[in-house]
């Protein structure tokens, strides 16, 4: 049997203290405001540890649709 490889999809879970905004939603990319600047996360992205800072989180849905959320 072949070993399962890494997923080609980015699955987003994004929750506020009051409600979930995304639950197991497949997206193309998420752009986050980090202490060292903005960085984008895509499927199979290398693990990164970074402090987040207040700013806009951009969720790029499959296709061209985007949603902006303030963090």
Mean pLDDT: 88
- Determine the N-to-C terminus distance: 43 Å
Going by helix content, strand content and strand pairing, the class is: mainly beta
Radius of gyration: 13 Å
Strand content: over 45%
State the helicity in percent bands. Answer: under 10%
**Poorly predicted segments:** none
The number of helical elements comes to 0
* Apparent shape: globular
Strand count, sense and closure of the main sheet? Answer: 5 strands, antiparallel
How do the SSEs run, as a string of H and E?
EEEEE
Number of strands: 5
Concise synopsis of the structure shown:
This protein is mostly beta strands and 71 residues long.
Task: Characterise this structure.
There is one protein chain. By secondary structure, the protein is mainly beta. The chain has no helices and five strands. Strands 1, 2, 3, 4 and 5 form a five-stranded antiparallel beta sheet that branches. The chain is globular. The model has no long low-confidence stretch (mean pLDDT 88).
Keywords, separated by commas or semicolons:
mainly beta, 71 residues, globular
SSE diagram, text form:
Elements: E1 10-15, E2 20-34, E3 37-42, E4 56-61, E5 66-70
Antiparallel strand pairs: 1-2, 2-3, 2-4, 4-5
